[in-house]
Amino acid sequence: GVINRKRSPIDPVLRSLVTVRVSQLNWCRFCVDINAMTLIKRAGSSEKVEALANWRESPLFDEREKAVLDYTEAMTGLDGVSDEQAARLKPWFDDDAMVELTGLIAFQNMSAKFNAALDIAPQGFCQLPVQPERPAQPNSKDA
Questions:
Q1: For residues 7 and 58, is the Cβ–Cβ distance under 8 A?
Q2: Separation of alpha carbons 73 and 77, rounded Å
Q3: CA 4 to chain centre
Q4: CB atoms within 10 A of CB 110
Q5: CB 65 within 8 A of CB 10
Q6: Nearest Cα to Cα of residue 125 among 31, 52, 51
Q7: Do the Cβ atoms of 126 and 36 come closer than 8 Å?
Q8: Radius of gyration of the chain (CA)
Q9: At what angle are helices 12-25 and 63-76 packed, to 10 degrees?
Q10: Is there a contact between 89 and 98 (Cβ–Cβ < 8 Å)?
Q11: Fewest beta carbons within 10 Å, which of 26, 66, 102, 134?
Q12: Average pLDDT over residues 56-63
């Protein structure tokens, strides 16, 4: 409830873009399925879901969404967030909204990593384009 509160300074479509992108990056098939369903309901179409993996090149995403998705990917990856990436959000987000956005990304990362590790299967909440297979990870014993 706290992560999806009605008085959030982050609009529902943007919240869903974040949760779907984090889910994709963590290869959580269940999370992509359920979060994409929510995004489709909130956005009124599946266009953004279908374009999300290539958001940098897509004209469907505005500058605010691209700044948020860049921040989302930085938080989800191993390199962390740069000062420049955080600064790009300042025109749209005050300190409270930044804390909420960061909490949303962190929570979705935890949830997606948990579900992906347990290989929780998608439940067919929505029909999505076929996602590429997760690249093989080297076994830590082999490294």
A1: no
A2: 6
A3: 14
A4: 12
A5: no
A6: 31
A7: yes
A8: 15
A9: 40
A10: yes
A11: 134
A12: 96
**What's the pLDDT score for residue 143?**
47
Where do the H-state alpha helices sit in the chain? 12-25, 29-43, 47-51, 63-76, 83-87, 95-117
CA nearest to 67, candidates 41, 101, 36: 101
Q: For residues 29 and 129, what is the distance between their CA atoms, to the nearest angstrom? A: 12
CA distance 104 to 129: 25
CA 87, 76, 28, 130 dihedral sign is positive
pLDDT, tens digit, 9 for 90 and up, residues 72-84: 999 999 989 999 9
CA neighbours closer than 13 Å in the CB half-sphere of residue 26:
31
What's the pLDDT score for residue 126?
A: 76
Please state, in angstroms and rounded to a whole number, the distance separating the CA atoms of residues 50 and 47: 5
Specify whether the CB–CB gap between 125 and 34 falls below 8 A. Answer: yes
Give the pair of three-digit tokens for residue 117.
């590790």
Distance separating alpha carbons of residues 110 and 71, to the nearest angstrom: 16
Length of the chain: 143
Q: Which residue has the tokens 């005050």?
A: 94
